[in-house]
Amino acid sequence: MSGMTTANMSQLTRSELWSSELKEILRDEMQAQKYVRMLDGFPDGDTFTIPSIGQLQVDNYEEDTDVLYRPMDTGEFQFTITEYLSSASYITNKAKQDAFYAAQLEAAFVPEQERAIMAHFERTTLATPEAGVSANSQELIDGIQHRWAGSSSGAFISVADFARARYALKKLNVPDTNLVAIVDPSVEYTINTLSNLVSVSDNPRWEGIVSSGIATGMKFVKNIYGFDVYTSNYLKDVTDNALTNAASTPANVDFSSVNGKVNLFFSAASNVMPFVGAWRQAPKVDFEYNKNKQRDEYVTTARYGVKLYHPENMVRIVTKTNV
Questions:
Q1: Are residues 201 and 253 in the same domain?
Q2: What residues does 319 pair with on adjacent strands?
Q3: Is residue 123 part of a domain?
Q4: By residue range, what is the domain housing residue 40?
Q5: How many domains does the chain fold into?
Q6: Are β-strands 147-149 and 252-253 bridged in parallel, bridged antiparallel, or unpaired?
Q7: Start-to-end CA span in the chain (Å)
Q8: Does a structural domain hold residue 195?
Q9: Fewest C-beta atoms under 10 Å: which of 214, 244, 286, 318?
């Protein structure tokens, strides 16, 4: 009579074990909503108009002559609810009865649907500055360039680009408080490896970068020319084929073969918040048991709009993402 060995215990040995937990994908942080001034006083309809006023002029005056009266420039800013979204999932009765992970899966439906909608809001907000922008546009405002290709043929953003972004904002009277830059992770990589930053002897102010890297979580360790710098994977792609380089070396940069990312620079001061938005309907969950199909159905819907409010408070620097 033989003993119990691996060979004759094959029917009693599990060759594969399944975990009791479900693996989830890694999550990145979303931050765009904190830079959006959400409108109130917008109870119905889908279009909201905000009248605007400009500046008055000063004229030379001569004694005992008529004063010159001038009208103030006026205009309007129009904002529209453009996005109507849904995210939906279901699970059948049979699947619930047979699947070991059914309860965990069903519990994930609602939070995953809400996250999908908020990711859409993040991507839409960060793409808004490019809405209506024509290819290769420099977005000149009062003659000041607000859109250009990064340094070294668009390969990266240099420290000089940060200085130029600050200059462009200050020339348009944007306050130099709460300055924010949202850049692609490839930009972080480039700044981490800039020779004049890596060499502590050349620039001791950057010593912390050498020891710990320039970013922790989504925020840079160091402030660069007043900008708090954050990284994001939600920035918009562009394919401009001849975008001017601020340094004019080379004169134009081609992003048609290697897509560019639009890195954003602006002030998040409360009185010049760059974006406005509104939730016509915040994410709302509906549940229904479908007796005809014998399944539980979950759907989250939302309506919102977001738009660039202060074009002068938005500098775009386009870079390639290859490192």
A1: yes
A2: 261
A3: yes
A4: 32-128+278-306
A5: 2
A6: unpaired
A7: 67
A8: yes
A9: 286
